[in-house]
Structures are given as C-alpha cells and as structure tokens.
Amino acid sequence: FGSVAGGGRYDDLVKRFTGQAVPATGVSIGVDRLLAALAAKGRLDSAAQGPVVVTVMDRNRMADYMAMVGELRAAGIRAEMYLGNPKNFGNQLKYADKRQSPIAIIEGEDEAARGVVQVKDLIEGAKIAAQATVEEWKSQPAQVEVARADLLATVREILGRHG
Q1: Coil, helix or strand for 140?
Q2: Is 6 within 8 Å of 28 (Cβ atoms)?
Q3: Does the global pTM surpass 0.70?
Q4: Domains by residue range for the chain, with CATH
Q5: C-alpha closest to that of 77 among 157, 149, 141
C-alpha cells in the first residue's frame, strides 16, 4: 500500500514559494490508501446504507422538510434533505439511489394538507422492479402512505426489515 499517512517539517517548502524562512510542520493522510488498506483487512463495510432522503416538493416548505430530517436524526437515523433543484422529482430519486438510500420521504402539498407522507422503500422497490411483472409490481407497492405522526415508526420498521 505504501504509506497511509506522512508528515514532517516544511520550512524549505514555504521558503521556496515565499522567499521567507517560516517554521512549518504538516501531516497528510492518503484517504484512498487508507480505504484500500481497511478493505484489504476486511474492516470496511462496503454495503453501508446511505441516509434516508427527504425529498423537496415545495421550496416554501423547507422548514417542514428540515423538521422531518431533524426528527429522524434525533432518533439516531441517518437522514438528509435533497438540496438540488426540486422541479424534477426523478432527479431526486436518482440522487437517493446514488446515495444508496434505503428510503425516500415524499410530502407534497396534497399530502401536507391531509397530514400524511409517502414513504418509499427504495430497496424493496428495486427488488420488485428487477423480478416482477407489471401486474406483480402493482400488487406489491414499495411506497406507502402513512400519517405524518407515524413517519418515524414506519421508517424504523422498513430499516428493520433490511437489517
């Protein structure tokens, strides 16, 4: 692997660029090498789940979305809010997929008015999509609508199913 970290005195380096002798020390860590070393020793969990992603359907409701993220985090669940352009919902789900998110939370204007949220099980959805016919896919929805008050319990239940 070579060295994973290194450091030392850099007096001459500073002098080379500034012309002044300045006492200096430094250290660096080769993140790529560190990850390779951890993987080689079996100490790196490469299948770690990403965070639960709270999607953004209405920029005027950012405080509501952040409250959901805060509630999930307070319960010890990794969560983040989508910060890109909310106009293309498909991009939000692509982002969640790229982040290896197990769940996406969706609350648009209609859901907010009814006091509900959509909880999309992205892991189950991917399994169903890979194996099912259209009819089977429709009969096994990976997205459920729950009362806003039940968000945390539903997320915990889904995360529990996926280990």
Answers
A1: coil
A2: yes
A3: no
A4: 5-40 (no CATH), 52-161 (3.40.50.800)
A5: 157
